[in-house]
Amino acid sequence: MTSHTAYLDWNATAPLRPEAAAAIGEALAQTGNPSSVHSHGRAARAIVERARAQVAAFQGAAPAEIVFTSGGSEANHLALRGAGARAVLVSAIEHDSVRQAVPKAGILEVSPDGVVDLDALDRRLAVTPGPALVSLMLANNETGVIQPVADAAAIAHRHGALLHCDAVQGAGKLALDGTSLGADLLTISAHKLGGPAGIGALVVAPHVLMAALQAGGGQERGRRAGTENLSGIAGFGAACAAAAGGGDAWPRVAALRGEAERRLLAIAPEAPVYGAAAARLPNTLCIGMPGVAAATQVMALDLAGVMVSAGAACSSGKVRRSHVLDAMGVAAADAECAIRISLGWSTTAAEIDLLVDAWGALYARTRASAA
Ligand SMILES: Cc1ncc(COP(=O)(O)O)c(C=O)c1O
C-alpha cells in the first residue's frame, strides 16, 4: 500500500495473508475429493484435517468441534436454526445473518454505549420456555463495542440455555477464544482474519446436538453436507495459524486508532464517537461528521484515496439506516452522518495522516459553504 491510498475498511474484509495465499495455491494444485478413498482423495483429506486442527487450535477447541461452512452468515444460520432451540433471544445489535435467521427471535436491548443489558437477559430467560438459545456477538462490526459474552454465557447456562457467539469481528483482534468465553456455539469467518471470503466455521461444543440444514453427502460429521471447499479451507487454516501468532500487532493498531480519534476530534470537537465509553475493538472507530451524510463522506474520502464504510452497507452498496446506532438510541439524523473507520495489522501512520487530511478538508469545505 502506497501512502496515496489508505485502506481503512478492515471490518468489511481484511487483505489476504501471504500464508493463506500460499496454502490456497497448494490446495488448488491438489486434485481429489476429500471423501474419496484413493491416494488423491486422502491427500485432499489431509489438507482439510490440517486446516481443521489450525482453526480448532486458534479457538481453543477440539478439531471434531469445527464445522466448516460457506462463511459467517451460514455458520450463524446453522447455530440459530440447527441447535434445536425452541426459543431464541438475540441482541438488538447482531449482524443481519443472526437477526434474520429466526424471525420470531426475542430482542435484547443494549445501553446507549452499545452494550447488551445482562439483567434484561436474566429476566427474559426466567420466563422463556426452553430449550432456549441466546446469541450475542463478541464485538460489534459497526462500533467495535465488545460484549460481555462470558457473563452472558454464565447467565444462559444458569437457565439451562445455550449461548451462541458470533465472533466474526472479535476473533483474532481480542485475546479470547470460545473456551474462555464459555460459548456453546461460536462463529468465525476467514475473510476477516486474512483468509479468503466464502469460508467460515461454526465451533460446536460436544454436548450440542446439531441438525444439518441441508441434506447430502454427510460431510462435516453429518452437520453440513457438500463437498469441502478445499482451497478455502486451506487458506482459512493458514490465516488462523498466522492470526494466532499475530497478537502483538494490535497494541500498535490501538495506538493508531487512538491517534486517528484524537486528531479527528481536534478538527471537529462536536463529532460524536459511538461506543466511546465502552470497551471497543482496538481497530474500530465509528464517528459522525455532524450535518454531512455518511455517503458524502465516503465518496469524498474515496476521491482522496481513503477507503472507509458508511455504517452498515448492504450487498448493493447502498447505505441503510444502521440498526446498531438505532438500538443505541442515536437519532436518525445523527446516525446518517456516521462512518466506520477500521484498521488492521498493516495499517500505517501515513494512512492515518491521509484520513485526517481528507476528513479535515471535507469538514472545512462543508463549514465554509454553510457560513
Ligand atoms: C459480525 C458479523 N457477523 C457475520 C458476518 C458475515 O460473515 P460472512 O461475510 O463470512 O458471511 C459479518 C460480516 O460482515 C460480521 O461483521
Walkthrough of the structure:
The chain has 371 residues and is an alpha/beta fold. It has two domains: 6-14 and 247-370, Alpha-Beta Complex (Aspartate Aminotransferase, domain 1); 18-245, Type I PLP-dependent aspartate aminotransferase-like (Major domain) (Aspartate Aminotransferase, domain 2, 3-Layer(aba) Sandwich), CATH 3.40.640. It contains 13 helices and eleven strands. It has helices at 18-28, 39-58, 72-82, 96-99, 118-126, 149-158, 178-181, 230-244, 250-267, 294-303, 323-327, 332-335, 349-370; strands spanning 6-7, 66-69, 87-91, 106-108, 132-135, 162-166, 185-189, 200-204, 284-288, 306-307, 338-342. The strands form three sheets. It has a seven-stranded mixed β-sheet with strand order 2-8-7-6-5-3-4, with helices on both faces. Strands 1-10 form a two-stranded parallel ribbon. The protein has a two-stranded antiparallel ribbon with strand order 9-11. β3 (87-91), α4 (96-99) and β4 (106-108) form a beta-alpha-beta unit. α1 runs antiparallel to α8 (230-244), α5 (118-126) packs parallel to α6 (149-158) and α9 (250-267) runs parallel beside α13 (349-370). The longest helix has 22 residues, at 349-370. The two termini are 37 Å apart. The structure holds pyridoxal-5'-phosphate (PLP). Pyridoxal-5'-phosphate binds next to α3. The site of pyridoxal-5'-phosphate (PLP) has 13 residues, from α3.
